[in-house]
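Chapter summary example.
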Amino acid sequence: MNAEAATEDCFVLAERLNADCQCLSLDREALSRELGHAPDGDALSAMIAADRPHLFAGSMVFVSGEHIGRMADIVAAIERVAATPAYLELVLAHAPAVARHRPRARGVFLGYDFHLGPDHLGGPQLIEINTNAGGALLNALLARAQQACCDAVRARLPGSLGEDPPEHLFMAMFLAEWRAERGEARLSTIAIVDTEPREQYLYPEFVLFARLFERHGIAALICDPRDLAWRDGALWAGERRIDLVYNRLTDFALEQPANAALRAAYLAGDAVVTPHPHAHARYADKRNLVALTDPALLQRWGIDAETRELLLSGIPRTESVSRADADDLWARRRQLFFKPAAGYGSKAAYRGDKLTRRVFEEILSGEYVAQALVPPSSRRLTVAGESVMMKIDLRNYVYDGGVQLVTARLWQGQTTNFRTPGGGFAPVLALPCGR
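The structure predicted for these 435 residues follows.
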């Protein structure tokens, strides 16, 4: 069998397994043991079971190795363009002023989210990039809590990237951020910062990160930005001086009054903040996808042909929404997905075929982009005795251009959520083929 035929068979096998392998691979007792390795592990398990029952899917997702490699290629292509002065000038032109402050730290946990679409031959399609992508540490634990529920799963269980478990990669990433800004100075204290952190859906992950930092000899605390103060050339939480902030806020420009101390310390260079406003402007503003899918602009910038091909075939065409184009956009709405330029987590995002005139008018009055609709691929599972079809998106956790972990989310409905019985984060089992 030639390589092309083998790759095609791998695509078909992945689709067949996603449709037919309905066994539950998640070993919930093993997951509880993984959580229990940390202090407060039993409390975390109870919190997830009681308040976040759909955080973890019961089974995994099958993806061809060719698609895994293709996603990494698209990530690398975007990194090449993002490094060019012309791209940076363009994206900073529509970014808030704080984004023009450019620290040496790159920003942790970029999340590159992909759909495979209903036609596997089309290849992965990048839907969006996020700068404070949550779930990486939860997914590392989830991958180790899988059991071989059938022969296909037994063939290769996920949970390891080469010789380094994901936790090692994540810790090395935070240390690299610190050294980029502070060299060989000692990193003593990390603050994990979000608004009302205990109320956040991914609060259990904050606790796990705090324990990870502490195991490496770094004091850690979880706090609201209102608990921070900027004084005497440093950022403080009470009487504790903060060296590095792991920023989980969705106020990407740090504009809200509650974030004033954090913003001031960041701009003064008195605390290392990661991810930061510059990283959001550079990668996650949805208007950047307009430039990345503009063939004439890419060519004018001198982007090489291979990179242009990866971008134009791997990112759905994206356009800015303008009231001047209202009639045309409304006519084409069924083929489009509308997203706020600075949005996150599918908030205020709409499939065009679900739009009402009222919502469309709100879109025209805001800062939105319209992206060619790429329906997600699907995973059939048995939930509560019934066969149900779940939608799939694939998240690549990326740092400094390198993919650290590939995971999936399963859901039903218009946009990704953690409200679907049987859905939630799911590990990816990559089927070796084609590479």
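To summarize the output: The first helix runs from residue 3 to 20.
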